[in-house]
């Protein structure tokens, strides 16, 4: 699992590291994306739509909670 901390909430990093650092399979990282990214203009497969929906949920959690827990590779 990844615990992604919003770039706009660096104050959460120490606490997340304490809480999740003790769990072997969780890595705490800061979101490096800044601003909006352009979406590729191509037909999306079912798999890419699912991935996009997961990303939207993580983006929403980053915006509202300041962090998101996501499976590695999602």
Task: Give descriptors for this structure.
74 residues, 3 strands, 3-stranded mixed sheet, alpha+beta, 2 helices, single chain
Description:
With 74 residues, the chain is α+β, with helices and mostly antiparallel strands. The protein has one domain (2-33, 44-70). The protein contains 2 helices and 3 strands; from the N terminus they run βαβαβ. The protein has helices at residues 13-21, 46-65, and strands at residues 2-5, 27-30, 67-70. Strands 2-1-3 form a 3-stranded mixed beta sheet. The model has no long low-confidence stretch (mean pLDDT 80).
Give a short overview:
Helix content is 39%, strand content 16%. The protein has 74 residues and is of the alpha+beta class.
Oligomer: single chain
Computed structural class: alpha+beta
Question: Outline, from the CA principal axes?
Answer: globular
Which H/E pattern describes the elements? EHEHE
How large is the count of helical segments? Answer: 2
The total tally of domains equals 1
E-strand count: 3
Q: Numbering strands along the chain, what is their spatial order in the largest sheet?
A: 2-1-3
* Radius of gyration computed on alpha carbons: 14 Å
Mean pLDDT: 80
Approximate strand percentage: 15-25%
């Amino acid at each position: 699992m990844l615990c992604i901390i919003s770039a706009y909430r660096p104050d959460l990093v120490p606490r997340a590291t304490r809480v999740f650092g003790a769990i072997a399979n969780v890595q705490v990282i800061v979101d490096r994306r800044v601003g909006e990214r352009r979406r590729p203009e191509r037909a999306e497969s079912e798999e890419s739509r699912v991935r996009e929906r997961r990303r939207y949920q993580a983006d929403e959690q980053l915006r509202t909670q300041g962090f998101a827990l996501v499976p590695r590779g999602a």
